[in-house]
Prior knowledge:
single chain, alpha/beta, Rossmann fold, 8 helices, 54% helix, globular, binds ligand Z5A
Amino acid sequence: MAGRFITLEGGEGAGKSTLARALAHRLEGAGHRVVVTREPGGSPKAEAIRTAILSGRFKEQGAFAEALMFSAARIDHIDSLIRPALQRGDWVICDRFIDSTRVYQGVLGAVAAATLQELEQVAIDGVMPDLTLILDLDPSIGLARAAKRRAPDEAVDRFEGETLGFHQRLREAYLAIAVAEPARCAVLDAGLPPERLAEAAWSVVSERLTHTQER
Ligand code: Z5A
């Protein structure tokens, strides 16, 4: 496809949304058209599924049911937003994608890797990220950031309410993906201040992707 597809991954409060905006700004400044989106969500149908999942309504049904819901949202998101944007030649920056399913439902939810792999292939139908930036952060810092941002009357979401041990295992699982797929993934130190993190991300993007699509 003509465009480039970047996904941002990492734990709660790692700074993915903040970095997505900063990267989009840099890419637009370099003359690219950019679509910033997120998962679960990114299209009206997928946003409706997001609301249902994050309310915790499917927790009782187990991790496999949640994986199916995330995949259903992903199929609509790809069909209605991501694939058309990439076909137009736009850059797409997506806050979370397949690695979140692998980590949350696979490693932490104990859904078999082979099952998730098949589900992933069906859901993405060939739309694989060109680059995945993994924002690595001590989970106690990420959770503190998320708590600070939350309004006093706002409840924690389905995953934020898990234990610190859960979030530590999540961090390790992301690092293992980066080791297994070095050509696609790059790990960034998400403990850096936002401007320095954006600079580090921009170096990776420039080095790995921009030379392949000068406008
Ligand atoms: N999930 C799943 O289980 N399976 C799947 O397949 C998919 C998702 C796709 C979505 O939650 C949940 O769905 C997610 C996994 C699961 N659950 N968790 N946890 P979400 O979208 O609501 O939450 P999130 O993805 O974790 O995003 P977040 O909490 O909004 O964090 P963020 O985007 O990484 O961070 P941020 O909004 O950019 O920044 C958070 C705060 O930190 C904010 O006040 C910033 O100003 C501050 N910040 C940002 N960057 C920095 C730096 N560099 N330094 C200091 N402070 C910073």
